[in-house]
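Contributing new records

If you add data, match the layout below exactly. Sequence lines come first and carry their own label; structure lines follow with theirs. Keep one chain per record. Anything else will be rejected by the validation script.
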Amino acid sequence: MAPRSSLTTRVAIVGGGPAGLLLSHLLHRSGIDNVVLELRDRDYTVQRVRAGVLEHDAVALLTEEGLGDRLRSEGLRHDGIYLQFAGERHHIDFAELVGRHVWIYGQQEVVKDLIAAHDANGTPARYEVTGVEVVGIDSDAPAVLFSQGGEEFELGCDFVVGADGFHGVSRLAIPKSDRTTYEREYDFGWLGILAHTPPSSDELVYALHERGFALLSMRSPTVSRLYLQVPPGENIADWPDDRIWDELDTRLALPGWTLERGEIFDKSVTPMRSFVSTPMRHGSLFLAGDAAHIVPPTGAKGLNSAIADVALLRRGLVDHYERQDDAVLDSYSETQLSRSWQTQYFSTWMTRMLHTFSGPDAVFDHQVQLGQLAQLVGSAHAKAHLAEFYTGLPITR
């Protein structure tokens, strides 16, 4: 076997999704050498349809770091959401309650902006790598082993950041005896569609209905994003377009209001689960984004949590190299796990409040949900609690 070619950098980033690409961009702007390694090709990372809501501080960070031009020209600023139940729709006004807002801008659009920035900066990102292995994280010589184009490489570094998602290899580099995993799986999923039709609402509508949850969202003034709660493992082939629109009509129905239909050009079923792995740091390895935590999408926290992780990591790495101060890096795991459990709380709260559950207590539980929602929309304090969490916990940068 031919010897591995040796490469060196300060920070090796495993994973070229939004978390890895954003961290690389932030480090480049701070003068810290880094290399991104991604299993998939560039087209896959751009085309993957995921989250669409960016929190107040996440948008501020992206804007400060030169990534906000297209976001602010093509994204949609929203000052609130609607909660619908018992045949009525109620507005939660974030701007009035907490003076903050969110933006609708798809995750794939964020990735496009990041790739464009990397191309403009000439920062190194290697796509379609295989055989990735994180080694030496308990030593003074950590490295990432990988193959590309039939050649074997060893990327030596000071730190490794695992931003390679739930199925990635980075988390598994932490010895099993030192890892603790917390998980919850829900007995339903989301059937999501993208359709060529103007949104039927000016802001997102979260609806509790006897037949299941529904969400009316959007991606642009001409593209709507909508979701239905469905059983786990539902076969998308069993949901022709007319059935999807009819079910959305039923769950989102209001007197005098019309759901606009259009051509569906993407549909899929996503399982619902929560996941947290501790610690988020072991030796010279740091985990970020879905490699460490996953939330159900009801609270719109997945991408935003990843942005918060890498923002704090950038600060810690700058402190390390510029001031020889490791306080932020040393507290990274504790800080971000505390933040993660808070976002898990909010996402779980939203999920349990707005979805139907099976079992012998299902009818009773539904009436409790109606009571909970009635109390929420009738209380300024309860609405402010929702608004504060939805627009986002502070991002340290």
